Amino acid sequence: MKDGPLAVVAASVLWGTAGTAGLLVSADSVALAAARLVVGGTALALLAGRDVRTAVRPSLLLGAVAVAAYQLCFFAAVGRTGVAIGTVVAIGSGPVFTGLLSWALHGRRPSGRWAVATAAAICGCAALIVGGGARAGGQVVSGVLLALLGGLLYAFYAVTAARAIGQGARSGAVMGVLFGGAAVLMAPVLLLNGVGWAGEPRGLLAVLYLGLGTTALSYFLYGRGLRTTPVATAATLALAEPAVAALLGLVVLGERLAPVSVAGLVLLALSLVVVALPEAATVPRRERELESQP
Fold first, then answer.
1. What SS3 class is residue 256?
2. What is the C-alpha to C-alpha distance for residues 129 and 132, in angstroms, rounded to an integer?
């Protein structure tokens, strides 16, 4: 198996730890997201160094806007629907939008196996949430719409990054442009919400981990994964995030999973394995069939 899918899964595992790490501080969720993006985006831009300037292009700058807008849409959505439903709609719709955008913009039609495995993975996510007893409250319709917009924004910057990397840009530089630009856009949001909470040791530790671990390192790995992994496949593999979050809730926070959640977790894991397995083994057989024809 190529290391691309493994890099994407590793990034997803880091993303899945963000919720638990965020519980270490009592900051406003928008302020915490802004701090995470500012720290992580700055680190990615510094890591890329001079390569950032050579990678700058209008599409990536627009992608940076999408990165920042995704954060705002996501947290606005969970504020209306609750964390569980907002998360599963945003994350679950991401692979669908990614596959469709990749097909519509660049003619890369997802495989039938991807479609089946992605549908199964989304069902697994839904079962994971339903089994947790999620309840929607407040402005549900507007919250779901914002979550769907968040999924579309995620798909846009993922496809944009994959396109730039496919055209020869360094993956580190691409992520530096996307998240460095987003850091600039989110800095005023952070200042408006205040940063006093980050002065406490626990708050500072959480922000550094969220920024350097769940953003800088994770997107560095994600960018490397996109070198050899189709973006639609990568988006489906990223559904490992809610599975990791659920397991951490079980092990670290003492939460309990209902049988339907356990079933959803198993279905999600199996789906990700199916997506990660290479399809190259089916090519020689098809070639032999064509060669045998008169």
1. coil
2. 5
Give residue-wise pLDDT tens across range 265-285.
777 777 767 766 665 544 444
Cα-based distances in Å from 177 to 41, 69, 151, 226, 235: 8, 15, 20, 16, 20
Instruction: Please measure the distance between the N-terminal and C-terminal CA atoms of the chain and give it in whole angstroms.
Output: 35
Coil vs helix vs strand at 195: coil
What's the length of the chain? Answer: 294
5 close to 225: Cβ distance less than 8 angstroms: yes
Cβ 81 vs Cβ 89: under 8 Å: yes
Sign of CA dihedral 246, 250, 253, 254: positive
Q: What is the per-residue pLDDT across 114-152, written as a single tens digit (0 to 9) for each?
A: 778 778 877 877 776 666 555 445 566 787 788 889 889
Q: At 264, which amino acid appears?
A: G
* Structure tokens given for 128: 């994971």
Q: Tokens 């530790």 belong to which residue?
A: 205
Q: Residue 111 region, left (φ>0) first, then alpha (ψ -120 to 50), else beta?
A: beta
Question: Which pTM does this prediction carry?
Answer: 0.79
